[in-house]
Amino acid sequence: MPDERVIYYYASAQTTHTTYPEGLEILHFSSGQIEKHFPDGRKEIIFPDQTIKNLFPDGEEESIFPDGTIVRVQRDGNKIIEFNNGQRELHTAQFKRREYPDGTVKTVYTNGHQETKYTSGRIRVKDKDGNVLMDTKL
Fold first, then answer.
1. Which terminus of the chain has fewer Cβ atoms in its 10 Å neighbourhood, N or C?
2. Which parts of the sequence belong to the Centromere protein J C-terminal domain (predicted)?
């Protein structure tokens, strides 16, 4: 093109691939999915439902869902989920932890044990079957 863009249209896949002079590449798929490949190695994928997924050169990922939920996957595999209601979750190989806006924290370990710490200082621990092992009611 006169502005130095290069545009390919792949008829069989119904996909348009545009390359810009500064190195940005944008792909438009027939499904409505759009991918942007940035010169620094970053990729942004916009899905038809408007979910946005960012892939970073260092291996980290971030997904932003239409309801405002954000999921970040770190290089070590840990996952952080931020919900639009103020709750937050951390998933690791050892546990899943949910933090509530009031300060309550509930942790579920891979062996099934659950630990809930309340803002009042109360701590409740349950075994994998849900039986209370300890409860420090204040």
1. C
2. 21-49, 57-91, 96-125
- Amino acid identity of 5? R
Q: Which residues touch 2 (CB under 8 Å, ≥6 apart)?
A: none
Hey, what amino acid is at 113?
A: H
Q: What is the mean pLDDT of the chain?
A: 94
Q: Report how far residue 94's alpha carbon sits from residue 47's, in angstroms, rounded to the nearest whole number.
A: 31
Q: Output the pLDDT for position 2.
A: 79
**Measuring CA to CA, which residue among 65, 62, 61, 35 is closest to residue 50?**
65
Using the predicted structure, report yes or no on whether residue 54 has a pLDDT greater than 90: yes
Q: Is 53 in contact with 47 (CB distance < 8 Å)?
A: yes
Task: Give the whole-number percent of the chain exceeding pLDDT 70.
Answer: 99
The neighbour count for residue 92, using CB atoms within 10 Å, is 14
C-alpha span between 53 and 50 (Å, rounded): 10
pTM above 0.90, yes or no: no
130 burial level (CB within 10 Å; 0-12, 13-18, 19+):
exposed
CA 40 – CA 56 distance, rounded (Å): 9
